[in-house]
């Protein structure tokens, strides 16, 4: 079963390793005809191949007894027939699909309790830590063992501009570590802030890690690299990354509002504006005029009059999450490509490949179609078309992802995995190397049989905020069940392909040691695994069967107790016939219904009820933890064109004066375009 380059994934079936309900074999399951020949020719080697005393005892017996012990119930997977099964061999290298062609994957929960986790990155220093940024401006350190450090890596809550409004796009939006972080301790951040005269700005800054603690940023080390005024409160961009060329790429939004209304052509088509652009700068050298960066000489518009030299590509609306392809682990094909998800306006979401000097069409085009017809007729547009675009029937806010280049799930190699914030869909694109066309594949979570292994889950929070890649190349996504910057409802999930796993030991790595001064908080998953759900289902079925059995079994009739009550002394209202010898009985008074009611009104003279039992009912949960609203939502990177805050609770006096006027009743926010 084993050979170059790796073992067959079906080898696990030979040892019943795929079934968690059965004990693991220490001798493979053999096909009956092969087993008889094996025992006849190699029975003396059985004691050397297994420690199972039953198999060792069968060494000197007939082959039928031995073959009965090593028999595998599933004949498709016994050795050596599994090597000749064309159907199984043909599926090697292909992710398992359901009947509708959906790629079935499973998940593991790796973090929870986060406030809109917008970014997760690694430092590339061999420690295999990952740094998770919350929208409010706090960055946490997670260690390879899954624990989180109690003290944050960075806390900028007092500077970062954001609100609890559902879908507020402002906040801490981007984080990237310098390619030579191990030597210079530098990293870069992207966040919203208020400048002078309360002007909203985008700020890109450089910071350093503290010399005293490698898990703490030095708060006094911030150097502002770039600031851009924001004309509106949305479309803030937020991606920072370093290309293979060592330069830093900055992805900005078009400035907000609907349809990029700024100027004759909008900000995105205006090369003198830094909004709606992909910028490329050299942060290792200072520039002229006091700039803390230098523009690379090969930037495409360095010599074009009126164009800002830092512009690398333009015509983007609000690119939300971009990533650099590591390339195929063997051939390096695709290495260095930059993929981005660009959030659309009214009709389409798109995935783009960034090229030098590219014009991505906005606001003339949205997806493959015209948005501004006047600009769209401009023959000089020469825009770069997306590699894939989908309509709003599928989703209304794309979240860009990564090309999988990890080790643990080899069937996923080369798939670009991304999602949609509004619909919660997970999707993948697969490239046809001959035609260079990309085909979309839906991703669904496997059923109970597919994901019934320890630690695997098949559910996730609905709003997909971002994707991430750890130092080993495994893929994650960040999601929340309540898209508010202050709601601790965010979780992080790792993708697992149950159809094919890497051979044991192939993907092991040894993280570089890192000193920790802060206390470690061990991770406690909140999501129930598929095995937990199956166990609960089985327990419910057992209880239901037990109750049904108890209800159907006959019970012996209990003997009736003699009544201690005396016969009622009141005369019946029914008249009885009287004969000549019948004597008239005397009437005896007994309390009637009216008297009983009067007696029940007498004050109770017993013990008083303790005060603890006379408390009022508890107050209702705060609004934050109520079931999620029914109106549409947004998120960092979604398109609010005019912010409408979630209605705030009015002071008592205002509520008294409010009465039932329509202006005082809370209204859901309109859908953001």
Automatic annotation (TrEMBL):
Residues 562-587 have a biased composition (Basic residues). Residues 544-553 have a biased composition (Polar residues). Residues 114-440 form the Glucose/Sorbosone dehydrogenase domain. Residues 638-647 have a biased composition (Basic and acidic residues). Residues 541-673 are annotated as: Disordered. InterPro entries: 6-blade_b-propeller_TolB-like, Glc/Sorbosone_DH, Quinoprot_gluc/sorb_DH_b-prop. Residues 619-628 have a biased composition (Low complexity). PANTHER family: HEDGEHOG-INTERACTING PROTEIN (PTHR19328), HHIP-LIKE PROTEIN 2 (PTHR19328:SF54). This is HHIP-like protein 2. The lineage of its organism: Eukaryota, Metazoa, Chordata, Craniata, Vertebrata.
């Amino acid at each position: 079963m084993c050979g170059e380059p790796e073992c067959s994934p079906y080898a696990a079936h030979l040892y019943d390793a795929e079934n968690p309900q059965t004990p693991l074999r220490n001798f493979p399951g053999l096909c009956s005809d092969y087993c008889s020949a094996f025992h006849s020719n190699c029975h003396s080697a059985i004691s050397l191949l297994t420690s199972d005393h039953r198999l060792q005892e069968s060494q000197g017996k007939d082959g039928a007894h031995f073959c009965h012990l090593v028999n595998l119930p599933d004949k498709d997977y016994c050795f050596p027939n599994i090597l000749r099964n064309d159907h199984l061999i043909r599926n090697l290298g292909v992710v398992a699909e359901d009947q509708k062609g959906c790629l079935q994957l499973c998940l593991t929960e790796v973090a929870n309790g986060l406030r809109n986790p917008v970014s997760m990155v690694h430092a590339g220093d061999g420690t295999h830590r990952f740094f998770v940024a919350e929208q409010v401006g706090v960055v946490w350190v997670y260690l390879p063992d899954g624990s989180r450090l109690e003290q944050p890596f960075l806390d900028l809550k007092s500077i970062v501009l954001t609100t609890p409004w559902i879908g507020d796009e402002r906040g801490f939006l981007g984080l990237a570590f310098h390619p030579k972080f191990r030597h210079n301790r530098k990293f870069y951040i992207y966040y919203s802030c208020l400048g002078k005269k309360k002007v909203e700005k985008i700020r890109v800054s450089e910071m350093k890690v503290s010399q005293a603690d490698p898990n703490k940023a030095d708060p006094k080390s911030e150097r502002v690299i770039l600031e851009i005024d924001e004309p509106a409160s949305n479309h803030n961009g937020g991606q920072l990354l370093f290309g293979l060329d060592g330069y830093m790429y900055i992805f900005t939004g078009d400035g907000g509002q609907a349809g990029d209304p700024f100027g004759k052509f909008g900000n995105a088509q205006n090369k003198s504006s830094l909004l709606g652009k992909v910028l490329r700068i050299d942060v290792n050298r200072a520039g002229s005029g006091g700039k803390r960066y230098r523009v690379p000489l090969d930037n495409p518009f360095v010599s074009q009059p009126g164009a800002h030299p830092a512009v690398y590509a333009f015509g983007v609306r609000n690119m939300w999450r971009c990533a650099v392809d590591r390339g195929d682990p063997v051939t390096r094909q695709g290495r260095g490509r930059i993929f981005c998800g660009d959030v659309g306006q009214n009709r389409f979401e798109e995935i783009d490949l960034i090229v030098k000097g590219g014009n991505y069409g906005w606001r003339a085009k949205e997806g493959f179609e015209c948005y501004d017809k006047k600009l769209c007729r401009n023959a000089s547009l020469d825009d770069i078309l997306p590699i894939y675009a989908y309509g709003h029937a599928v989703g209304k806010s794309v979240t860009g992802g990564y090309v999988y280049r990890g080790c643990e799930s080899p069937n996923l190699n080369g798939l670009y995995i991304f999602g949609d914030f509004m619909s919660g869909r997970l999707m993948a694109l697969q490239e046809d190397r001959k035609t260079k066309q990309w085909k979309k594949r839906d991703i669904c979570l496997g059923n109970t049989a597919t994901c019934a292994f320890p630690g695997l889950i098949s559910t996730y929070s609905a709003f997909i905020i971002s994707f991430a890649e750890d130092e080993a190349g495994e893929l994650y996504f960040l999601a929340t069940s309540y898209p508010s910057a202050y709601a601790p409802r965010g979780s992080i999930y790792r993708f697992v392909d149950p159809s094919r796993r890497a051979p044991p030991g192939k993907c092991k790595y040894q993280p570089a040691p890192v000193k920790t001064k802060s206390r470690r908080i061990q991770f406690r998953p909140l999501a129930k695994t598929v095995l937990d759900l199956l166990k609960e289902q089985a327990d419910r079925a057992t209880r239901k069967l037990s109750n049904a059995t108890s209800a159907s079994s006959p019970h012996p009739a209990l003997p009736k107790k003699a009544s201690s009550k005396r016969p009622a002394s009141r005369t019946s209202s029914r008249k009885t016939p009287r004969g000549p010898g019948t004597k008239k009985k005397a009437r005896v008074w007994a309390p009637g219904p009216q008297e009983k009611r009067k007696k029940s009104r007498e004050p109770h003279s017993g013990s008083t009820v303790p005060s603890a039992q006379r408390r009022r009912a508890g107050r209702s949960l705060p609004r934050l933890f109520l079931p999620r609203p029914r109106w549409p939502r947004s998120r960092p990177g979604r398109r609010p064109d005019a912010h409408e805050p979630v209605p705030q609770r009015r002071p008592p006096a205002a509520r008294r004066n409010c009465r039932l006027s329509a202006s005082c009743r809370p209204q859901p926010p309109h859908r953001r375009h």
